[in-house]
């Protein structure tokens, strides 16, 4: 606070002192009450929506007390700040009082939240009191069935060993797997006007998770082999297999869209950040080299 005046100085123009004006000058507020600046600070300090401003308000009134202790005592005689008296506080007691104040405010907030929760619970129970829940026996049977279903685990979140630090992945650290999402034209629509592609779609196995190496190349791609009869030097007939070009798929029936590919490795997110930063540092030393990563 830029106020170099003191209470001991004989100053006939108190308007030049901001602290003096803040402690003595009052103004009519919207509540039809005269209030000084220090009185307004007292109102703000006890308001719950301005709890974050408590440290700044305490610093301001402490500076006022240092500048004009007698005027401050007269102006704050009827005011009740949520702090201890400034003229009796030592640095140690100030720190202790701040901790006690924070604990008190935390307990008050917790009490308000618990009271609000209890009120909401009471309102819910009162609104559901007239609802017919049926027989208790049916409810007990339903609860037993639900408990039995809850114990059955049909799926487990993927986990394993981090590829970088070689530690097991669990809920304690964020982890994931690698994936590349890009736009591709690998997706295609079957041309319903072409009998060859219709035949390939009909012959597609029900499950593509099983190996079909014994029939590869599959479908139209494998229909490029023809048997050719030739005569050898002795005049005998020789049948040979000739492999030609396969029938291509029309580019008009391709469907562009997002395709995700991944390697299946698992890595911690923190390890991934370390890995990326190491690559960036290595690339900055060899800017002419395109690193495989």
Radius of gyration: 41 Å
Given as residue ranges, the uncertain stretches (5+ residues, pLDDT < 50) are: 88-92
Terminal CA distance reads: 57 Å
Given helix and strand content, the structural type is alpha+beta
How many strands, which pairing sense, and closed or not: the largest β-sheet? Answer: 2 strands, antiparallel
- Written as H for each helix and E for each strand, in order along the chain, the element string is HEEHHHHHEEHEEEEH
Number of helices: 8
Output the strand order for the largest sheet. 1-2
**Helical proportion?**
25-40%
What's the count of strands? 8
Q: Residue-averaged pLDDT, rounded?
A: 78
Beta-strand share of residues: 5-15%
| Overall body shape | elongated
How would you sum up this structure, described in words?
It is a single chain. This protein has 293 residues and is an alpha+beta fold. Among the domains are: 14-89, no CATH class; 158-179 and 262-293, no CATH class; 188-256, no CATH class. 39% of the residues lie in helices and 15% in strands. The strands form four sheets. A two-stranded antiparallel ribbon has the order 1-2. A two-stranded antiparallel sheet has the order 3-8. The protein has a two-stranded antiparallel sheet with strand order 4-7. Helix 3 (54-67) crosses helix 4. It is elongated.
